[in-house]
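Here is a tokenized protein:
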Amino acid sequence: MTEPGRRRSARDWVVDSLVFVGAILLGLYTYDEGTRDPVHEVLLGVDLLSGMLLCVSLWFRRRRPVELALLAAVFSLYSDASSGATLVLIMTVAIHRPWRTSALIFAANAVSLLVYLQIRQKADAEALMVAAVAMYAAVAGWGFYIRSRRQLLQTLRDRADRAETVATLQAEQAQLRAREEIAREMHDVLGHRLSLLSVHAGALAYRPDASTEEVAGAAEIIRASAHQALQDLREVIGVLRAPVGELPQPAFSDLPALVEGSRAAGIPVELTLDARGAMPEHVGRTAYRIVQEGLTNAVKHAPGEPVTISVTGAPGNGLSVELRNPAPDRRRGVGQGLKGLSERAALVDGRLEHGRTPDGDFRLHAWLPWPA
């Protein structure tokens, strides 16, 4: 049986037809033409008519189950022919309505049965009462079973729908995290190279009197930096279709090479490195990215100024990364690079600070956990 208000399907038509025919057959079987109970012919006619009308009403039982079940209780006061339809309506209420409503309908029909036995003056009234109540209880129990089974199936469907929705959201979040990771990698990998490239190109622009050897050397550095930037870009683009874990990731051991590359580009960098012990990969990678972004910002906002880098720490005490460089009077607001660094530090349960010091330098400091 479908829920009230829903359009009847082909299966519903088959079920309703079988129920209708079954109710008529059961009603005719229990109908007494006066052979067992001497009653007036008018009552017998009303009995049969009421039973057939109640059987016809079964086609509308999904829309008005309670009202029709109460009508069945009224007809059951005198009608034998309505017994089949009454059983169907009791079961329908048990399927579609709460158990309290079903209990009231059950009680109303049981009371009608008592009155019926008095009106019809049945000889075997007690046996009929027990049999009828047992049938009422059986069809009500069957209706409760169908209701419980439907609720269970609906619960399973809801859970499946929720699980599918959660899986979709998780996939979207994973895709978003992958895009953010790729964006960070592209920013970190290319930003540093392009900043160095900009420094050398700017030097050529401001040195029109440079010798041929100096111009050739600067051009070679620009060519090498551009080539390396192109290689880095190819690496990042090459893994756009791969899992995030396969993105090219630097290690803490690559930090001295990063500093040497900046020195070779003409940036005065002083590095203090005092970190010994087995460092987790994600902590070392985060430290590398912090230094890389700090050098990129130094080149961008204070070209030619010296940069002091201090990386110290030990297992159990954490890793401290600090960059200092003279800052110009006016600095722009926090860019995407520093926001990305804050996110990186937070991902490893670390913290990041940046700002101007009292002596006018720009300070970038991060503390990263280093378990013992």
